[in-house]
Amino acid sequence: MSNYTATDYWKVFFPLMLSCLLCLPLLAQESRTIKGRVLGENNEALPGVNVTVKGTTNGTVTDTDGQYSLSGFQAGANPTLVFSFIGYVTEELSVDGRSEINITLVPDIKSLGEVVVVGYGTQRKVETTGAIASVKSAELTQTPVVNVAQGLQARTAGVQITQNSAAPGGNISVRIRGTNSINGTSEPLYVVDGIQISNGGGVNDVSPLSTINPNDIESVEVLKDASATAIYGARGSNGVILITTKRGKAGVTRVTYDGYYGVQQVTKQLDVLNAIQYAELENEVYKNNPPYADPSSLGEGTNWQDLVMQDSPIQSHQLSVAGGSEKTQLAISANYFNQGGVIIESDFKRYSLRLNLDHQISNKVKIGTSILGSYSVSNRIPTGSESIDGPAVTSSIVGAALGAPPVLIPYKDDGSIFPFGEQSGGTYRELANPLGLAAVMNRTAYKRTLANLYADFSILQGLTYRASFNVDMENRLLDYYSPRSILSQVDLASGGGSAEKTNSNYLNLLHESILTYSTTFADQHTLKFTGVFATQSNQFDRNTINASKFPNDVTANEALQLAIDRTVSSDRSKDRLDSYMGRVNYGFRDKYFLDLTARYDGASKFGKNHKYGFFPAASAAWRVIEEGFLKDKISFLSDLKLRASYGATGNAGAIGPYQSLATVGASSGYSLNHNYNTGLSPSRIPNANLRWEKSIQTDIGLDIGLLQDRINLIVDFYDKHTKDLLFVKGLPQSSGYGSITGNFAEIRNRGIELSADAKIMDGAFKWNVNGNFSVNRNELVALEGGLQEFTVNNYAVLKVGEPIGIFKTYVNEGIYQTDEPILPGSGSRTGGAKVSDLNGDGQITADDQAITGNANPDFIFGFSTNMSFKNFDLSAFISGVQGNEIYNLARYTFENPLGQRNMFQGIVNRWSPTNPNNEYVSGFQGGRLPISDRFMEDGSYIRLKNITLGYTLPKVKFLYNARVYVSANNLFTITDYTGFDPEVNTFGNTNTRIGVDNGVYPLAKSFIGGVQVTF
Predict the structure, then answer these.
(1) Can you tell me whether residue 414 is helix, strand or coil?
(2) Can you tell me the mean pLDDT for 584-609?
(3) Contact between residue 945 and residue 968 where contact means Cβ atoms under 8 Å apart
(4) CB–CB of 88/106 below 8 Å?
């Protein structure tokens, strides 16, 4: 271990002792000293710059103020000084008898981007043959994001990111080059400092990525094609996102504070009926016994959206320290993040610590660790029902706020919540007061630790071995309690209060042995070999206690033994993945490159006949710009590289453990001799042939640099064919099982990606722009046994030849008018909805349904611009999605006048004999509203995601850098969509039910002010 003490980590980096020793013999002769100062592009001091005498080992480094001093020069000598610093152009200056030499180094833009992180190593950007996109930390955190995926949105071509719910810490879905699975996950693999993690969950779940602090991230690489992702074999078919956190560097220790505070506001409310309009509608719905004698006396009534929505704060504070010596580098940070919810009683808090430590034991051995620990608490407000049933929709707080009758009262005189069952004679007993739903405790605490320990060994010249040990540990504790106080007295008669405690534990262990050999021969050939053995295990266990019928609310869910009814359940699972991988990278004259990769994976999840899978890939690149017929021939062309790749990857995350085995489970109970019994019963039929989902992908790319790389273009064309998709197949009842999971389907994704960046101005006024544009076409190629169509739900199907995510509904034709004949099977009446008889058989049946919408966009895009002048900087970021449809189930519920719940404002213009409109049905039509394309809407949008104005303070002694800024986020959205927000998906990370809005958590805009200070 190191002999350095903790104090050594914080000292200023002294001149190299070796240089001093080498200079000792010269002291006996006549000598002189040269000193000076090194500055950067903004005249800031550059510490840690290497200053050496060319051709010798005599050298030093600059201190905190950029100052240096070199001794031991013979009188009359005229040496040359070499100034070098990472990210800056190396400069050489002749001494020419001077005793003081000051210099300003120029940033080397090309060198800053020349190294990218790839699987199990790095490559020079010029050497890359695959489709890899890089995003830096400044871009990720330009907006106040909870997790890294939010920061990636619209930053990278070919990556579609949807915020399923705008709740604090809310769930997201990420698709790299389209949807690749049906019943499995299409989420990419995330690798954080070598630790592999996954993202998933429903619309009301907190994203697993939200437990990781985005401010700790140095850079993100997105691996998109098979040549880049095959290195991860069975987990690479959905793409891979490599996350590198900030590490310490040799030089001066820096202390940085980065914090902001802001306010969030709901971007819009949905227009619903006021009390007068509602009472008039109720009288029409119940016209045989109208409940309101004088609607005009009721006024506006209660605005329930005002009561459940609020302005809320958002803040983040981070303190970090980074620095080190030649042998030891350290980076440590602490962060506090708190995002209040724009729905009352919802919020997300995160406390996190990070430690990255690297130590060079000797010139042969280096060790290090990365530890990220976080504690997060999410107070959730469930939104977005998965049912089209009206009562189910209004059981979530957003649905309840929209449907709550404005004639009812929120609070009693004593300030307590007024249950609807105690108002209006119990007429509205089946509806929940939205404030009561907000009073339900639904809190989850997350404790997570990501830890990596590595040791690097230099065995021979060019030959290294790394042993890496990774741990991902997470504990979740769910506390749920629905209090008695929100129930009416009638409901309390049968017992009140319900509670749950669920404790879940996740443990992911990964060991990787990585052997790397690199060499250069004949001065023209480069060769690198990487070999990996990895073994990974995942363990999960869960214990749940449910209880109901409590005597009071005093102990909430902390004394479940007080409940009359209690149930317990528990489960446990474990799976393992063993892997063997080899990769060869070859280059010739920095002109021709060839990469070959092969990985062999074995997973316990799969059937005994297909435990192992083989995943090869090959890619090549040709830097045409280096050819004699082109080099220096076209003045405006500075780079031109052609890339091509082909390979296979797998999707082990498509299923959980034990899916290939015959399993048993606890029965729901049965009666024997009039006694209730429980036991075990068969729950799954075995499938020894269950195997990987496998994607075969071809990619052709072109990298173009213009005007000395002031303009850069990247174009990729890809074709991805995914076979052996896991699909749940129904079985006849005679089998004793409802279904079997097997490899029964195929999907194809094809697309074009375009990225561009340009340095428009590079003087005192600097102006850079970046943009990306992506087109993906998804197609379901085949289903099991020649099946052409599979019904997902009332409005979505899987259909061969169509993309996954299509809607199949009736076609709306307006309203049945007076004396108009009503087609049999429609279930409608005069003033009710009319749909098309597509097959012309004179009646409405399921055969009259048609493909009426597609949730997949025609294209997605992003655009950002950054400008600076002197100490001021201004940036803006725009994202957009075009050509997708959203099925607005909330409209289906709140434009269907069944009675006893509020409606959207448009129903004021409903059909009546005196108002024969052709859009909104009459109040007296009994809820006969078909699932039709009337509720299909264009989900296209263009959003100003962020605009930021910053000012960097003038230099002050002891203050390395200080910047203040103001920022507006989600400032406006251009869209025709009528819901809260077009970026929505009620069903979370599902593949088959996308583009559905059933009343999820509304989007917020925010205004923040922040400061970044480095000492």
Answers:
(1) coil
(2) 90
(3) no
(4) yes
Residues 445-455 have pLDDT tens digits of 999 999 999 99
What is the structure's pLDDT at 208?
78
pLDDT value, residue 71: 80
- Cα–Cα distance list, 750 to 614, 700, 715, 717 (Å): 23, 12, 14, 8
| Band (210; pLDDT cuts 50, 70, 90) | confident
Phi, psi of 27, rounded to the nearest 5 degrees: -70, -25
Q: Coil, strand, or helix at residue 415?
A: coil
Whole-angstrom distance, CA of residue 380 vs CA of residue 205: 8
Residues 6+ apart with CB under 8 A from 77: 95
> For position 21, what pLDDT does the model report?
31
Residue 699: closest CA among 773, 748, 649, 644: 644
Residue 831's nearest CA partner among 285, 431, 417 is 285
Residues forming beta bridges with residue 353, ordered by sequence position: 334, 373
Judged against a pLDDT cut of 80, whether residue 144 lies above it is answered with no
**How many residues in the chain?**
1015
762 vs 64, higher pLDDT: 762
**What pLDDT band is residue 951 in, cutting at 50, 70 and 90?**
very high
**pTM of the predicted model as reported, rounded to 2 decimal places:** 0.84
Which of 808, 918, 915, 920 is CA-nearest to residue 854? Answer: 808
| Contact status, residue 921 vs residue 898, Cβ threshold 8 Å | no
Cα–Cα distance, 341 to 491 (Å, whole number): 30
Nearest partner of 229 among 906, 694, 712, 746, judged by Cα = 694
Which of these ranges, 159-163, 660-664, 732-736, 892-896, has the smallest mean pLDDT? Answer: 732-736
SS3 188: coil
Q: Is 413 strand, coil or helix?
A: coil
**What does the block give as tokens for 851?**
């493909």
Q: What is the pLDDT of residues 254-293, one digit of tens each?
A: 899 999 999 999 999 999 999 999 999 999 999 888 999 9
Cβ atoms of residues 233 and 650 within 8 Å: yes
Q: Cα–Cα distance between 681 and 693 in angstroms, integer?
A: 29
Q: How many CA atoms lie within 13 A of 573 on its CB side?
A: 14
pLDDT in tens, 507-525: 999 999 999 999 988 878 8
Cα–Cα distance measured from residue 511 to residue 861, given in angstroms and rounded to the nearest whole number: 39
Residues 6+ apart with CB under 8 A from 672: none
Nearest CA to 240 out of 622, 592, 697 is that of: 697
For 7, residues 6+ apart whose C-beta sits below 8 A from its C-beta are none
Max Cα–Cα distance, the chain, nearest Å: 117
What does the pLDDT average to over 840-856?
A: 94
CB 563 within 8 A of CB 548: yes
- C-alpha 252/C-alpha 324 separation (Å) is 7
- Tell me which amino acid residue 508 is: N
Q: Which amino acid is at 316?
A: S
Cα distance between residue 290 and residue 287, in whole Å: 5
Strands 872-882 and 961-975: unpaired
Contact between 45 and 103 (Cβ < 8 Å) = no
Q: In whole numbers, what is the pLDDT of the chain averaged over residues? A: 87
CA distance 177 to 699: 11
What's 309-355 look like in SS3?
A: ECCEEEEEEEEEEEEECCCEEEEEEEEEEEEECCECCCEEEEEEEEE
What's the rounded Cα separation, in Å, for the pair 825 and 813?
Answer: 15
Q: Is 321 in contact with 353 (CB distance < 8 Å)? A: no
- Residue 811 — φ and ψ, nearest 5°? -100, 120
Tokens of 25: 């013999």
Beta strands 240-245; 189-192: pairing state: parallel
Nearest to 134, CA basis, from 237, 267, 225, 241 = 241
**Could you give the count of Cα atoms lying within 13 Å of 964 in the half-sphere of its Cβ?**
3
Q: Please, which pLDDT band fits residue 379 given cuts at 50, 70 and 90?
A: very high
